[in-house]
Amino acid sequence: MNPIAMARARGPAQNSGPTIQDYLNRPRPTWEEVKEQLEKKKKGSRALAEFEEKMNENWRKELEKHREKLMGGNESSSKKKEKKKKEKKKSNRVSKIFSFLSFFPLGLFLFVI
């Protein structure tokens, strides 16, 4: 029961597709037709390249606008944050001083004078 021997006994397998000979004998374009096809592809790719370049330029402009918008917003928000931090520090200093002086009633009197 050798599978290889059994396959040989059945004979060659039936091909359902084209043979190599069919593939080699297929109709092929002439050299002139090939040149024309290549030129058409180049023209098409030029138009596509121009379109892509235009879209890239538009996208860059849109990105620049968005970046400027974000950078402008970040600067103002960072400045706001810094101002808030400074105000908190000042309020904390004043509250610490007064809380410290509240332990010493005379110290508050001296501080006011």
TrEMBL record:
The record's keywords, sorted A to Z, are:
Membrane, Transmembrane, Transmembrane helix
Segments of skewed composition (Basic residues): 80-92
Secretion signal, residue range per the UniProt entry: none
Where is region (Disordered) located? Answer: 1-34, 65-92
Membrane-spanning residues: 94-112
Tell whether Transmembrane is among the UniProt keywords: yes
**Keyword Transmembrane helix recorded:** yes
Question: What top-level branch of life does the organism fall under?
Answer: Eukaryota
| Protein family according to the UniProt entry | Belongs to the FAM133 family.
Q: What is this protein called?
A: Family with sequence similarity 133 member B
